[in-house]
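Re-run requested by the PI after the first attempt was lost when the workstation crashed. Everything re-entered from the original request form. Ligand of interest: flavin-adenine dinucleotide.
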Amino acid sequence: MSTTERPRILVVGGGYVGLYAARRILKKMRYGEATVTVVDPRSYMTYQPFLPEAAAGSISPRHVVVPLRRVLPKAEVLTGRVTTIDQDRKVATIAPLVGEAYELPFDYLVIAMGAVSRTFPIPGLAEQGIGMKGIEEAIGLRNHVLEQLDKADSTTDEDVRRKALTFVFVGGGFAGAETIGEVEDMARDAAKYYTNVSREDMRFILVDAADKILPEVGPKLGQYGKEHLEGRGVEVYLSTSMDSCVDGHVVLKNGLEVDSNTIVWTAGVKPNPVLSRFGLPLGPRGHVDTQTTLQVQGTDYVWAAGDNAQVPDLVGRKAGNENAWCPPNAQHALRQARVLGDNVISGMRGFPQKEYSHANKGAVAGLGLHKGVAMIVMGKMKIKLKGRLAWYMHRGYHGLAMPTWNRKIRVFADWTLAMFLKREVVSLGAMETPREEFYEAAKPAPAPAAAKAEPSPAKTEEKAKAS
Ligand SMILES: Cc1cc2nc3c(=O)[nH]c(=O)nc-3n(C[C@H](O)[C@H](O)[C@H](O)COP(=O)(O)OP(=O)(O)OC[C@H]3O[C@@H](n4cnc5c(N)ncnc54)[C@H](O)[C@@H]3O)c2cc1C
Protein backbone atom coordinates (compact mmCIF):
# COMPACT_ATOMS: atom_id res chain seq x y z
CA MET A 1 0.00 0.00 0.00
CA SER A 2 1.40 3.39 -0.95
CA THR A 3 1.87 6.19 1.57
CA THR A 4 0.75 9.35 -0.11
CA GLU A 5 0.49 13.09 0.42
CA ARG A 6 -2.60 13.15 -1.78
CA PRO A 7 -6.02 12.67 -0.26
CA ARG A 8 -7.08 9.02 -0.32
CA ILE A 9 -10.48 7.87 -1.56
CA LEU A 10 -11.04 4.47 -0.01
CA VAL A 11 -13.53 2.25 -1.85
CA VAL A 12 -14.63 -0.66 0.34
CA GLY A 13 -15.71 -3.48 -1.99
CA GLY A 14 -14.83 -4.04 -5.65
CA GLY A 15 -18.19 -5.42 -6.82
CA TYR A 16 -20.66 -3.71 -9.10
CA VAL A 17 -20.72 -0.38 -7.26
CA GLY A 18 -17.06 -0.41 -6.21
CA LEU A 19 -15.74 -1.12 -9.70
CA TYR A 20 -17.96 1.38 -11.52
CA ALA A 21 -17.57 4.11 -8.91
CA ALA A 22 -13.76 3.76 -8.92
CA ARG A 23 -13.68 3.88 -12.73
CA ARG A 24 -15.85 6.98 -12.75
CA ILE A 25 -13.73 8.75 -10.14
CA LEU A 26 -10.52 7.89 -11.99
CA LYS A 27 -12.01 9.12 -15.26
CA LYS A 28 -13.16 12.46 -13.83
CA MET A 29 -10.21 13.12 -11.54
CA ARG A 30 -7.40 15.52 -12.42
CA TYR A 31 -3.91 14.01 -12.56
CA GLY A 32 -2.60 13.52 -9.02
CA GLU A 33 -5.74 14.90 -7.40
CA ALA A 34 -6.22 11.85 -5.15
CA THR A 35 -5.22 8.24 -4.61
CA VAL A 36 -8.04 5.77 -5.22
CA THR A 37 -7.70 2.60 -3.15
CA VAL A 38 -10.08 -0.32 -3.71
CA VAL A 39 -10.18 -3.09 -1.09
CA ASP A 40 -11.90 -6.42 -1.72
CA PRO A 41 -11.22 -9.96 -0.45
CA ARG A 42 -11.45 -11.10 -4.08
CA SER A 43 -9.16 -9.78 -6.80
CA TYR A 44 -12.08 -9.66 -9.23
CA MET A 45 -15.57 -8.25 -9.62
CA THR A 46 -18.31 -10.84 -10.17
CA TYR A 47 -21.19 -10.22 -12.56
CA GLN A 48 -23.76 -12.01 -10.40
CA PRO A 49 -26.65 -12.12 -12.91
CA PHE A 50 -24.55 -14.60 -14.92
CA LEU A 51 -23.94 -17.00 -12.02
CA PRO A 52 -26.87 -19.28 -12.97
CA GLU A 53 -25.54 -19.54 -16.55
CA ALA A 54 -22.05 -20.22 -15.23
CA ALA A 55 -23.52 -22.97 -13.00
CA ALA A 56 -25.14 -24.50 -16.09
CA GLY A 57 -21.98 -24.31 -18.17
CA SER A 58 -23.42 -21.89 -20.76
CA ILE A 59 -20.70 -19.33 -19.94
CA SER A 60 -17.15 -20.09 -18.85
CA PRO A 61 -16.80 -19.09 -15.16
CA ARG A 62 -13.71 -16.99 -15.87
CA HIS A 63 -15.70 -14.83 -18.27
CA VAL A 64 -18.18 -13.86 -15.56
CA VAL A 65 -15.52 -12.15 -13.45
CA VAL A 66 -13.50 -9.01 -14.17
CA PRO A 67 -9.94 -8.71 -12.81
CA LEU A 68 -9.83 -5.51 -10.74
CA ARG A 69 -6.14 -4.77 -11.26
CA ARG A 70 -6.53 -4.93 -15.03
CA VAL A 71 -9.56 -2.67 -15.29
CA LEU A 72 -8.39 -0.24 -12.63
CA PRO A 73 -4.72 0.23 -13.58
CA LYS A 74 -4.59 3.70 -12.04
CA ALA A 75 -6.04 2.60 -8.71
CA GLU A 76 -4.35 0.91 -5.81
CA VAL A 77 -6.09 -2.47 -5.43
CA LEU A 78 -5.66 -4.29 -2.13
CA THR A 79 -6.84 -7.88 -1.71
CA GLY A 80 -8.21 -8.13 1.78
CA ARG A 81 -11.19 -7.44 3.99
CA VAL A 82 -12.07 -4.18 5.73
CA THR A 83 -12.92 -5.31 9.24
CA THR A 84 -13.56 -2.04 11.13
CA ILE A 85 -13.52 1.69 10.47
CA ASP A 86 -12.74 4.39 13.01
CA GLN A 87 -14.63 7.46 11.77
CA ASP A 88 -13.03 9.84 14.31
CA ARG A 89 -9.50 9.02 13.16
CA LYS A 90 -10.60 8.31 9.56
CA VAL A 91 -8.77 5.01 9.57
CA ALA A 92 -9.86 1.60 8.24
CA THR A 93 -8.47 -1.72 9.44
CA ILE A 94 -7.59 -4.09 6.61
CA ALA A 95 -7.14 -7.84 7.07
CA PRO A 96 -5.05 -8.90 4.03
CA LEU A 97 -5.12 -12.43 2.58
CA VAL A 98 -2.07 -13.30 4.67
CA GLY A 99 -0.24 -11.61 7.51
CA GLU A 100 -1.14 -9.08 10.15
CA ALA A 101 -4.05 -6.67 9.85
CA TYR A 102 -3.03 -3.03 9.34
CA GLU A 103 -4.57 0.42 9.43
CA LEU A 104 -5.16 2.54 6.33
CA PRO A 105 -5.97 6.24 6.65
CA PHE A 106 -8.45 7.83 4.25
CA ASP A 107 -10.01 11.20 3.50
CA TYR A 108 -13.09 10.09 1.55
CA LEU A 109 -14.92 6.82 1.92
CA VAL A 110 -17.15 4.78 -0.40
CA ILE A 111 -19.08 1.88 1.13
CA ALA A 112 -19.87 -0.76 -1.54
CA MET A 113 -19.76 -4.10 0.23
CA GLY A 114 -22.98 -5.53 -1.22
CA ALA A 115 -25.01 -8.18 0.52
CA VAL A 116 -24.55 -11.66 1.96
CA SER A 117 -26.97 -14.62 1.87
CA ARG A 118 -29.80 -14.17 4.33
CA THR A 119 -30.06 -17.37 6.34
CA PHE A 120 -32.07 -18.59 9.32
CA PRO A 121 -31.05 -20.96 12.11
CA ILE A 122 -32.42 -24.03 10.30
CA PRO A 123 -30.91 -27.29 11.60
CA GLY A 124 -28.48 -28.69 9.02
CA LEU A 125 -28.47 -25.63 6.73
CA ALA A 126 -24.95 -24.42 7.55
CA GLU A 127 -23.51 -27.91 6.90
CA GLN A 128 -25.59 -28.87 3.84
CA GLY A 129 -26.51 -25.62 2.07
CA ILE A 130 -24.86 -24.17 -1.04
CA GLY A 131 -25.30 -20.42 -1.71
CA MET A 132 -25.34 -18.61 -5.07
CA LYS A 133 -23.50 -15.34 -4.46
CA GLY A 134 -20.07 -16.03 -5.90
CA ILE A 135 -18.43 -17.72 -8.87
CA GLU A 136 -16.87 -20.32 -6.58
CA GLU A 137 -20.35 -21.43 -5.55
CA ALA A 138 -21.55 -21.57 -9.16
CA ILE A 139 -18.58 -23.75 -10.18
CA GLY A 140 -19.04 -25.88 -7.05
CA LEU A 141 -22.74 -26.40 -7.77
CA ARG A 142 -22.13 -27.43 -11.37
CA ASN A 143 -19.45 -29.97 -10.41
CA HIS A 144 -21.58 -31.21 -7.55
CA VAL A 145 -24.74 -31.75 -9.65
CA LEU A 146 -22.83 -33.59 -12.39
CA GLU A 147 -21.09 -35.67 -9.72
CA GLN A 148 -24.50 -36.70 -8.37
CA LEU A 149 -25.39 -38.02 -11.83
CA ASP A 150 -22.07 -39.94 -11.91
CA LYS A 151 -22.85 -41.41 -8.49
CA ALA A 152 -26.40 -42.36 -9.34
CA ASP A 153 -25.30 -43.96 -12.61
CA SER A 154 -22.77 -46.20 -10.91
CA THR A 155 -24.47 -47.39 -7.72
CA THR A 156 -26.74 -50.35 -7.05
CA ASP A 157 -28.05 -48.84 -3.81
CA GLU A 158 -31.49 -47.39 -4.52
CA ASP A 159 -31.39 -45.03 -1.47
CA VAL A 160 -28.02 -43.57 -2.50
CA ARG A 161 -29.32 -43.12 -6.02
CA ARG A 162 -32.54 -41.39 -4.96
CA LYS A 163 -30.71 -39.02 -2.63
CA ALA A 164 -28.19 -38.16 -5.36
CA LEU A 165 -30.94 -37.43 -7.88
CA THR A 166 -33.02 -35.15 -5.63
CA PHE A 167 -32.20 -31.43 -5.91
CA VAL A 168 -33.79 -28.91 -3.55
CA PHE A 169 -33.71 -25.13 -4.15
CA VAL A 170 -34.97 -22.80 -1.43
CA GLY A 171 -35.98 -19.29 -2.59
CA GLY A 172 -37.77 -18.44 -5.83
CA GLY A 173 -36.54 -14.91 -6.56
CA PHE A 174 -34.22 -14.05 -9.47
CA ALA A 175 -31.35 -16.13 -8.12
CA GLY A 176 -33.36 -19.24 -7.19
CA ALA A 177 -35.70 -19.42 -10.19
CA GLU A 178 -32.90 -18.73 -12.67
CA THR A 179 -30.55 -21.22 -11.02
CA ILE A 180 -33.05 -24.08 -10.88
CA GLY A 181 -34.11 -23.30 -14.47
CA GLU A 182 -30.51 -23.42 -15.73
CA VAL A 183 -29.39 -26.40 -13.64
CA GLU A 184 -32.45 -28.49 -14.56
CA ASP A 185 -31.73 -27.71 -18.20
CA MET A 186 -28.11 -28.81 -17.83
CA ALA A 187 -29.03 -32.01 -15.94
CA ARG A 188 -31.65 -32.89 -18.58
CA ASP A 189 -28.99 -32.44 -21.29
CA ALA A 190 -26.37 -34.38 -19.36
CA ALA A 191 -28.73 -37.32 -18.68
CA LYS A 192 -28.51 -38.22 -22.39
CA TYR A 193 -25.00 -39.53 -21.79
CA TYR A 194 -25.85 -41.76 -18.81
CA THR A 195 -27.04 -45.34 -19.20
CA ASN A 196 -28.82 -45.58 -15.86
CA VAL A 197 -30.03 -42.02 -15.33
CA SER A 198 -32.85 -40.27 -17.14
CA ARG A 199 -34.56 -36.93 -16.45
CA GLU A 200 -37.57 -38.85 -15.09
CA ASP A 201 -35.34 -40.34 -12.36
CA MET A 202 -34.46 -36.86 -11.08
CA ARG A 203 -36.48 -34.74 -8.69
CA PHE A 204 -36.15 -30.95 -8.78
CA ILE A 205 -37.92 -29.12 -5.94
CA LEU A 206 -38.35 -25.34 -5.57
CA VAL A 207 -39.58 -24.02 -2.23
CA ASP A 208 -40.58 -20.46 -1.34
CA ALA A 209 -42.18 -18.96 1.77
CA ALA A 210 -44.04 -16.42 -0.42
CA ASP A 211 -47.09 -17.31 -2.51
CA LYS A 212 -45.31 -16.54 -5.81
CA ILE A 213 -41.95 -16.80 -7.53
CA LEU A 214 -40.00 -14.16 -9.49
CA PRO A 215 -41.68 -11.16 -7.78
CA GLU A 216 -39.30 -8.91 -9.77
CA VAL A 217 -41.25 -9.47 -13.02
CA GLY A 218 -44.74 -9.05 -11.57
CA PRO A 219 -47.48 -11.55 -10.63
CA LYS A 220 -48.54 -12.59 -14.17
CA LEU A 221 -45.06 -13.40 -15.43
CA GLY A 222 -44.21 -14.93 -12.04
CA GLN A 223 -47.18 -17.29 -12.48
CA TYR A 224 -46.05 -18.04 -16.02
CA GLY A 225 -42.53 -18.79 -14.70
CA LYS A 226 -44.00 -21.19 -12.13
CA GLU A 227 -46.18 -23.01 -14.66
CA HIS A 228 -43.27 -23.17 -17.09
CA LEU A 229 -41.01 -24.80 -14.49
CA GLU A 230 -43.78 -27.19 -13.47
CA GLY A 231 -44.23 -28.11 -17.13
CA ARG A 232 -40.58 -29.20 -17.08
CA GLY A 233 -41.22 -31.45 -14.10
CA VAL A 234 -40.03 -29.09 -11.34
CA GLU A 235 -42.11 -29.42 -8.16
CA VAL A 236 -42.87 -25.91 -6.89
CA TYR A 237 -44.05 -25.56 -3.28
CA LEU A 238 -45.17 -22.04 -2.32
CA SER A 239 -46.19 -20.54 1.05
CA THR A 240 -43.98 -23.09 2.73
CA SER A 241 -40.47 -23.17 4.13
CA MET A 242 -37.73 -25.63 5.02
CA ASP A 243 -37.80 -26.65 8.70
CA SER A 244 -34.61 -28.72 8.70
CA CYS A 245 -32.13 -30.54 6.47
CA VAL A 246 -29.89 -32.45 8.88
CA ASP A 247 -27.63 -34.88 6.94
CA GLY A 248 -29.58 -33.99 3.80
CA HIS A 249 -32.94 -35.12 5.21
CA VAL A 250 -35.13 -32.19 4.09
CA VAL A 251 -38.31 -31.48 6.03
CA LEU A 252 -40.69 -28.85 4.67
CA LYS A 253 -43.39 -27.08 6.65
CA ASN A 254 -46.05 -28.54 4.34
CA GLY A 255 -45.10 -32.04 5.52
CA LEU A 256 -42.99 -33.11 2.54
CA GLU A 257 -39.81 -35.02 3.48
CA VAL A 258 -37.07 -35.97 1.03
CA ASP A 259 -33.41 -36.97 1.18
CA SER A 260 -31.10 -34.86 -0.93
CA ASN A 261 -27.38 -34.26 -1.35
CA THR A 262 -28.07 -30.88 -2.98
CA ILE A 263 -29.69 -28.03 -1.06
CA VAL A 264 -29.26 -24.69 -2.80
CA TRP A 265 -30.08 -21.67 -0.63
CA THR A 266 -31.21 -18.58 -2.54
CA ALA A 267 -33.75 -17.22 -0.06
CA GLY A 268 -32.74 -13.58 -0.24
CA VAL A 269 -29.89 -11.39 0.89
CA LYS A 270 -29.11 -9.04 3.76
CA PRO A 271 -26.60 -6.20 4.03
CA ASN A 272 -23.09 -7.21 4.99
CA PRO A 273 -23.10 -7.55 8.84
CA VAL A 274 -19.61 -6.00 9.05
CA LEU A 275 -21.30 -2.63 8.48
CA SER A 276 -22.20 -2.55 12.17
CA ARG A 277 -18.46 -1.98 12.89
CA PHE A 278 -18.13 1.04 10.63
CA GLY A 279 -19.63 3.65 12.97
CA LEU A 280 -22.21 4.73 10.37
CA PRO A 281 -25.97 5.27 10.72
CA LEU A 282 -27.85 2.11 9.73
CA GLY A 283 -31.48 1.57 8.76
CA PRO A 284 -33.81 -0.93 10.46
CA ARG A 285 -32.57 -3.85 8.32
CA GLY A 286 -28.88 -3.02 8.63
CA HIS A 287 -28.32 -0.96 5.45
CA VAL A 288 -26.20 2.21 5.51
CA ASP A 289 -28.65 5.09 5.61
CA THR A 290 -28.02 7.49 2.73
CA GLN A 291 -29.47 10.76 1.50
CA THR A 292 -30.80 11.10 -2.05
CA THR A 293 -27.26 12.19 -3.02
CA LEU A 294 -25.89 8.82 -1.82
CA GLN A 295 -24.00 10.69 0.87
CA VAL A 296 -24.34 8.85 4.18
CA GLN A 297 -26.67 10.68 6.59
CA GLY A 298 -24.82 13.11 8.84
CA THR A 299 -21.51 12.95 6.93
CA ASP A 300 -19.88 14.93 4.14
CA TYR A 301 -17.06 12.51 3.27
CA VAL A 302 -18.83 9.10 3.13
CA TRP A 303 -20.98 7.74 0.28
CA ALA A 304 -22.74 4.38 -0.04
CA ALA A 305 -24.73 2.62 -2.77
CA GLY A 306 -25.86 -0.77 -4.02
CA ASP A 307 -27.07 -3.72 -1.97
CA ASN A 308 -25.54 -2.45 1.28
CA ALA A 309 -27.31 0.94 1.21
CA GLN A 310 -30.84 2.15 1.73
CA VAL A 311 -31.23 4.79 -0.94
CA PRO A 312 -34.48 6.80 -1.14
CA ASP A 313 -36.34 6.03 -4.37
CA LEU A 314 -37.18 9.52 -5.64
CA VAL A 315 -39.37 8.23 -8.46
CA GLY A 316 -41.48 6.16 -6.06
CA ARG A 317 -41.68 9.06 -3.60
CA LYS A 318 -42.79 11.49 -6.29
CA ALA A 319 -45.54 9.00 -7.13
CA GLY A 320 -46.80 9.24 -3.54
CA ASN A 321 -45.02 6.40 -1.74
CA GLU A 322 -43.17 8.20 1.05
CA ASN A 323 -41.30 5.08 2.10
CA ALA A 324 -40.03 4.02 -1.30
CA TRP A 325 -36.44 2.69 -1.33
CA CYS A 326 -34.41 1.57 -4.32
CA PRO A 327 -34.50 -2.24 -4.63
CA PRO A 328 -31.17 -4.09 -4.42
CA ASN A 329 -30.41 -4.94 -8.04
CA ALA A 330 -27.78 -4.47 -10.71
CA GLN A 331 -29.90 -1.91 -12.54
CA HIS A 332 -29.70 0.50 -9.60
CA ALA A 333 -26.18 -0.48 -8.53
CA LEU A 334 -24.72 0.51 -11.92
CA ARG A 335 -26.50 3.88 -12.09
CA GLN A 336 -25.91 4.72 -8.46
CA ALA A 337 -22.20 4.04 -8.93
CA ARG A 338 -21.99 6.71 -11.65
CA VAL A 339 -23.76 9.36 -9.57
CA LEU A 340 -21.72 8.36 -6.55
CA GLY A 341 -18.46 8.75 -8.50
CA ASP A 342 -19.47 12.23 -9.68
CA ASN A 343 -20.51 13.22 -6.16
CA VAL A 344 -17.20 12.11 -4.66
CA ILE A 345 -15.38 14.37 -7.13
CA SER A 346 -17.79 17.25 -6.36
CA GLY A 347 -17.39 16.62 -2.63
CA MET A 348 -13.60 16.80 -2.93
CA ARG A 349 -13.80 20.07 -4.86
CA GLY A 350 -16.49 21.61 -2.64
CA PHE A 351 -19.20 21.59 -5.33
CA PRO A 352 -22.87 20.72 -4.74
CA GLN A 353 -24.09 17.12 -4.78
CA LYS A 354 -26.37 15.57 -7.44
CA GLU A 355 -29.48 13.59 -6.46
CA TYR A 356 -29.93 10.00 -7.57
CA SER A 357 -33.15 9.24 -9.37
CA HIS A 358 -33.93 6.33 -11.67
CA ALA A 359 -37.22 4.95 -12.95
CA ASN A 360 -37.41 1.16 -13.07
CA LYS A 361 -36.73 -0.11 -16.60
CA GLY A 362 -38.13 -3.60 -15.92
CA ALA A 363 -36.54 -6.98 -15.34
CA VAL A 364 -35.41 -9.98 -17.35
CA ALA A 365 -34.85 -13.56 -16.19
CA GLY A 366 -33.49 -16.61 -18.00
CA LEU A 367 -34.90 -20.01 -17.09
CA GLY A 368 -32.62 -22.21 -19.19
CA LEU A 369 -31.73 -22.36 -22.87
CA HIS A 370 -34.33 -20.47 -24.99
CA LYS A 371 -36.63 -19.94 -22.00
CA GLY A 372 -37.26 -16.78 -20.00
CA VAL A 373 -39.52 -13.98 -18.86
CA ALA A 374 -39.09 -10.23 -19.33
CA MET A 375 -40.97 -7.16 -18.24
CA ILE A 376 -39.95 -3.96 -20.03
CA VAL A 377 -41.21 -0.67 -18.59
CA MET A 378 -41.65 2.14 -21.15
CA GLY A 379 -43.18 5.19 -19.49
CA LYS A 380 -46.54 4.04 -18.20
CA MET A 381 -46.53 0.95 -20.40
CA LYS A 382 -45.36 -2.47 -19.23
CA ILE A 383 -44.44 -4.91 -21.99
CA LYS A 384 -44.50 -8.53 -20.86
CA LEU A 385 -42.57 -11.12 -22.83
CA LYS A 386 -42.10 -14.84 -22.28
CA GLY A 387 -40.37 -17.77 -23.88
CA ARG A 388 -37.66 -17.44 -26.54
CA LEU A 389 -38.11 -13.69 -27.13
CA ALA A 390 -37.78 -12.94 -23.41
CA TRP A 391 -34.70 -15.14 -23.30
CA TYR A 392 -33.11 -13.13 -26.15
CA MET A 393 -33.90 -9.95 -24.19
CA HIS A 394 -32.28 -11.48 -21.11
CA ARG A 395 -29.13 -12.40 -22.99
CA GLY A 396 -29.01 -9.14 -24.94
CA TYR A 397 -29.46 -6.98 -21.83
CA HIS A 398 -26.98 -8.80 -19.62
CA GLY A 399 -24.49 -9.43 -22.41
CA LEU A 400 -24.25 -5.68 -22.99
CA ALA A 401 -24.34 -4.84 -19.27
CA MET A 402 -21.34 -7.09 -18.59
CA PRO A 403 -18.44 -4.78 -17.66
CA THR A 404 -15.60 -4.29 -20.19
CA TRP A 405 -15.52 -5.13 -23.90
CA ASN A 406 -13.10 -7.95 -23.21
CA ARG A 407 -15.70 -9.76 -21.08
CA LYS A 408 -18.65 -8.84 -23.34
CA ILE A 409 -16.85 -10.41 -26.32
CA ARG A 410 -15.91 -13.53 -24.36
CA VAL A 411 -19.48 -14.02 -23.14
CA PHE A 412 -20.95 -13.60 -26.64
CA ALA A 413 -18.27 -15.97 -27.98
CA ASP A 414 -19.27 -18.60 -25.39
CA TRP A 415 -22.90 -18.30 -26.46
CA THR A 416 -22.01 -18.48 -30.15
CA LEU A 417 -19.84 -21.59 -29.68
CA ALA A 418 -22.65 -23.22 -27.68
CA MET A 419 -24.90 -22.88 -30.74
CA PHE A 420 -22.63 -25.22 -32.67
CA LEU A 421 -21.02 -27.43 -30.03
CA LYS A 422 -22.63 -29.63 -27.41
CA ARG A 423 -22.76 -28.44 -23.82
CA GLU A 424 -19.79 -29.47 -21.65
CA VAL A 425 -21.08 -31.99 -19.07
CA VAL A 426 -17.93 -33.09 -17.31
CA SER A 427 -17.71 -32.87 -13.52
CA LEU A 428 -14.39 -31.61 -12.19
CA GLY A 429 -15.22 -32.20 -8.52
CA ALA A 430 -11.60 -33.08 -7.72
CA MET A 431 -10.74 -29.42 -8.41
CA GLU A 432 -11.71 -28.70 -4.82
CA THR A 433 -8.92 -30.99 -3.55
CA PRO A 434 -6.30 -30.72 -6.30
CA ARG A 435 -3.40 -31.90 -4.12
CA GLU A 436 -5.03 -35.11 -2.87
CA GLU A 437 -3.80 -37.44 -5.59
CA PHE A 438 -0.27 -36.05 -5.54
CA TYR A 439 -0.24 -36.31 -1.74
CA GLU A 440 -1.13 -40.02 -2.00
CA ALA A 441 1.68 -40.57 -4.52
CA ALA A 442 4.25 -38.62 -2.53
CA LYS A 443 3.31 -40.09 0.87
CA PRO A 444 6.21 -41.65 2.82
CA ALA A 445 6.77 -45.42 2.40
CA PRO A 446 4.48 -47.77 4.43
CA ALA A 447 5.00 -47.76 8.21
CA PRO A 448 7.18 -50.52 9.83
CA ALA A 449 4.00 -52.29 11.08
CA ALA A 450 3.06 -53.01 7.50
CA ALA A 451 6.58 -54.27 6.80
CA LYS A 452 6.29 -56.73 9.76
CA ALA A 453 3.01 -58.10 8.53
CA GLU A 454 4.61 -59.07 5.23
CA PRO A 455 7.91 -60.87 5.82
CA SER A 456 10.67 -59.88 3.45
CA PRO A 457 11.51 -62.36 0.63
CA ALA A 458 15.01 -62.86 2.12
CA LYS A 459 13.62 -64.00 5.51
CA THR A 460 11.14 -66.38 3.89
CA GLU A 461 14.02 -68.06 2.03
CA GLU A 462 16.01 -68.53 5.28
CA LYS A 463 13.00 -70.15 7.01
CA ALA A 464 12.47 -72.52 4.12
CA LYS A 465 16.13 -73.68 4.29
CA ALA A 466 15.90 -74.33 8.07
CA SER A 467 12.86 -76.54 7.74
C1 LIG B 1 -27.48 -15.23 -8.55
C2 LIG B 1 -27.83 -13.74 -8.67
C3 LIG B 1 -28.53 -13.30 -9.78
C4 LIG B 1 -28.86 -11.95 -9.91
N1 LIG B 1 -29.55 -11.54 -11.03
C5 LIG B 1 -29.84 -10.24 -11.19
C6 LIG B 1 -30.53 -9.80 -12.34
O1 LIG B 1 -30.89 -10.60 -13.22
N2 LIG B 1 -30.78 -8.46 -12.47
C7 LIG B 1 -30.39 -7.54 -11.51
O2 LIG B 1 -30.64 -6.34 -11.67
N3 LIG B 1 -29.75 -7.94 -10.40
C8 LIG B 1 -29.45 -9.26 -10.21
N4 LIG B 1 -28.78 -9.66 -9.08
C9 LIG B 1 -28.41 -8.65 -8.05
C10 LIG B 1 -27.14 -7.87 -8.40
O3 LIG B 1 -26.11 -8.74 -8.80
C11 LIG B 1 -26.72 -7.05 -7.19
O4 LIG B 1 -27.77 -6.17 -6.87
C12 LIG B 1 -25.44 -6.22 -7.44
O5 LIG B 1 -24.35 -7.07 -7.66
C13 LIG B 1 -25.15 -5.30 -6.24
O6 LIG B 1 -23.91 -4.66 -6.41
P1 LIG B 1 -23.03 -4.25 -5.13
O7 LIG B 1 -21.83 -3.55 -5.65
O8 LIG B 1 -23.89 -3.56 -4.15
O9 LIG B 1 -22.60 -5.63 -4.46
P2 LIG B 1 -21.63 -6.75 -5.04
O10 LIG B 1 -21.61 -6.74 -6.51
O11 LIG B 1 -22.05 -8.01 -4.35
O12 LIG B 1 -20.18 -6.33 -4.52
C14 LIG B 1 -19.81 -6.31 -3.17
C15 LIG B 1 -18.32 -6.51 -3.07
O13 LIG B 1 -17.91 -6.24 -1.73
C16 LIG B 1 -16.91 -7.16 -1.37
N5 LIG B 1 -16.81 -7.28 0.09
C17 LIG B 1 -17.58 -8.00 0.93
N6 LIG B 1 -17.13 -7.86 2.19
C18 LIG B 1 -16.09 -7.02 2.16
C19 LIG B 1 -15.21 -6.48 3.14
N7 LIG B 1 -15.34 -6.78 4.44
N8 LIG B 1 -14.23 -5.65 2.75
C20 LIG B 1 -14.08 -5.32 1.44
N9 LIG B 1 -14.88 -5.80 0.47
C21 LIG B 1 -15.87 -6.63 0.82
C22 LIG B 1 -17.37 -8.45 -2.06
O14 LIG B 1 -16.29 -9.37 -2.21
C23 LIG B 1 -17.89 -7.94 -3.37
O15 LIG B 1 -16.90 -7.94 -4.38
C24 LIG B 1 -28.46 -11.02 -8.91
C25 LIG B 1 -27.75 -11.47 -7.80
C26 LIG B 1 -27.44 -12.82 -7.67
C27 LIG B 1 -26.67 -13.28 -6.45
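Saved to the shared folder this time. Residues 456-467 have pLDDT under 50 and may be disordered.
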